[in-house]
Design goal:
about 20% strand, BirA Bifunctional Protein, domain 2, two-stranded antiparallel sheet, globular
Length: about 120
């Protein structure tokens, strides 16, 4: 990611990387060793992002938007707000309803890949 960013120029397209990580903790600039209670054998990777500690693992999709904010005309704060809204709005609607085939005890969180053919979409 850092290599991509370092090599891009004004003509480089913006992209979003979607991936799934093996079990990993990332520790941001505000992270401290005592924030990791019991990492066990899971590697801890120091990053230059903000925040403290985040777990990434199988079944969890991670999106890395690599966007030239200046070219897009966004300040960081506005971009983060828009990105949060793009995730929060659809998932909050999905969270409010379980799919018709599932019991409440089975569905505990929204699934980002629900079919668009359900009546409430």
């Amino acid at each position: 990611m850092q290599d991509f960013t370092a090599q891009r120029d004004a003509s480089t397209d913006d992209i979003i990387w979607l991936c799934e990580h093996p079990p990993t903790f990332t520790q941001g600039l505000a992270g401290k060793d005592d924030h990791l209670l019991a990492p066990g054998d899971i590697p801890v990777i120091a990053t230059n992002r903000g925040g403290q500690v985040t777990y990434h693992g199988p079944g969890q999709v991670v999106a890395y938007p690599l966007i030239d904010l200046q070219r897009a005309g966004y300040f960081v704060k506005e971009y983060v707000f828009r990105l949060e809204e793009a995730v929060i709005r659809p998932t909050s609607r999905a969270w409010a309803r379980s799919p018709p085939w599932a019991s409440k005890s089975v569905v505990t969180a929204p699934t980002m890949a629900w079919p668009s053919t359900w009546p409430w979409t």
